[in-house]
């Protein structure tokens, strides 16, 4: 019988903490990420939440196999370091997380890119478990991607293979991205860019979006259904951008399945049919159509992926 695993998913808005035992998420809690102020100040809060989660399950550190973190950014899973991160948790590359984990919990430590971890969770336990060629696109604060090719989770020489789909250039005349490039998928359609996308829309001044305390995609899709012109135009631009990303992922990695996940997929009933239609029309796949599916674990796939890594690395 394998030991339970502590898993952490460092989202830009919320940090999710879970305990997974025998491939079942038996406990989970979320705390505010406050990612703009860095990771170091959040570590005591993470430590407290982990200890409380274990206490609720009447578990101790000696019962656990280890701790795994799914992090945004470029992650060296061998040296167990965050190499580079885009805005969120900006101080993370300067923190020795393995040392923190050992001092706080006395446990083995594992870390991986969050989109890669989410794909791993779906590949081992979820929608993609019967496939060896899969790509994932996560629509949230940014646009995260990952790829499994011929049964291997892609990492690459410098740990960037598969994960930078949100920085595919789809509008070379577009605006500057957080990454420094121009016209990335994220600059055309992502939560972090949405307020400026909305503000630049010609119909924004007459839109109900303007009266909201903050603009998010839930409001965009809802108001678009109600006939709000600005919301409808933003929805169309975003769908086109995500479809362009999906087609590029298909052309790059030749998958059997494209998995869609992330917070924006609360509007998946509009997003999935659009992307499926566009990939069937425009992806160059003479063998047939790539399956476009939603993730089984939209909120917890990265937790499952990290549990798999911890259990298999620390056997």
TrEMBL record:
**InterPro entries according to UniProt:** ATPase_NBD, ROK
Annotated keywords: Kinase, Transferase
Q: Which domain of life is it from?
A: Bacteria
Keyword Kinase attributed: yes
Would the keyword Kinase be found if you checked this record's keyword annotation?
A: yes
Extent of the signal sequence:
none
Which molecular function term from Gene Ontology is one that the record holds? kinase activity
**Record family assignment:** Belongs to the ROK (NagC/XylR) family.
Protein name in the entry: Glucokinase
Could you tell me which species this protein originates from?
A: Chryseobacterium angstadtii
């Amino acid at each position: 019988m394998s030991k339970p695993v502590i898993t952490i998913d460092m989202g830009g808005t919320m940090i999710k903490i879970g305990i997974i035992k025998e491939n079942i998420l038996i406990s989970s809690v979320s705390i505010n990420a406050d990612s703009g102020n860095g990771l170091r100040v959040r570590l005591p809060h993470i430590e407290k939440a982990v200890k409380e989660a274990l206490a609720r399950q009447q578990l101790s550190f000696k019962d656990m196999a280890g701790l795994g973190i799914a992090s945004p950014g470029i992650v060296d899973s061998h040296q167990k370091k965050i190499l580079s991160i885009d805005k969120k948790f900006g101080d993370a590359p300067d923190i020795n997380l393995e040392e923190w984990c050992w001092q706080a919990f006395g446990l083995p430590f594992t870390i991986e890119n969050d989109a890669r971890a989410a794909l791993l969770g779906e590949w081992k336990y979820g929608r993609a478990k019967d496939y060896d060629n899969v790509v994932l696109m996560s629509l949230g604060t940014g646009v995260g991607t990952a790829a499994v090719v011929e049964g291997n989770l892609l990492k690459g020489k410098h740990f960037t293979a598969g994960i930078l789909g949100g920085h595919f250039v789809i509008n070379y005349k577009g605006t500057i991205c957080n990454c420094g490039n121009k016209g990335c998928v994220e600059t055309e359609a992502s939560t972090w860019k949405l307020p400026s996308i909305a503000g630049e829309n010609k119909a924004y001044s007459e839109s109900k979006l303007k009266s909201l305390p903050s603009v998010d995609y839930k409001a965009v899709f809802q108001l678009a259904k109600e006939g709000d012109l600005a919301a409808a135009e933003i929805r169309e631009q975003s769908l086109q951008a995500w479809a362009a990303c999906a087609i590029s992922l298909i052309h790059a990695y030749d998958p059997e399945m494209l998995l869609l996940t992330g917070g924006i997929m609360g509007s998946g009933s509009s997003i999935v049919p659009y992307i499926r239609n566009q990939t069937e029309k425009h992806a160059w796949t003479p063998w047939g159509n790539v399956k476009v599916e939603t993730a089984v674990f939209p909120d917890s796939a990265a937790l499952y992926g990290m549990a798999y890594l911890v259990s298999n690395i620390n056997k």
